[in-house]
Design brief:
Helix 2 packs across helix 3. With 75 residues, the chain is mainly α. It has one domain: Orthogonal Bundle (434 Repressor (Amino-terminal Domain)). 19% of the residues are buried.
Length: 75
């Protein structure tokens, strides 16, 4: 992954974490809603997983935000 790609992945992960925390969801609770394991959420939030747009859209729906919010630069 390029430096820009890595930065984007980390920014998206941080944004997802921020949005999750704003809704007072633990990683475990959020993972259950997404349909994955808590470790997967941890890796997403740490910027270690490059997500598809479809998966980001699913997460946005669960967090009740638009996909554009997740892509905004500031967490």
């Amino acid at each position: 992954m390029t430096d820009k790609g890595e930065l984007l992945t980390k920014d998206i992960g941080l944004k997802i974490k921020t949005l999750r925390l704003e809704q007072n969801l633990t990683q475990k609770q959020f993972a259950q809603k997404v349909g994955c394991h808590q470790d997967h959420i941890s890796r997403i939030e740490a910027g270690k997983i490059n997500l598809t747009l479809e998966y980001i859209s699913k997460i946005a729906d669960i967090l009740n935000v638009s996909v554009e919010i997740i892509f905004k630069n500031k967490p």
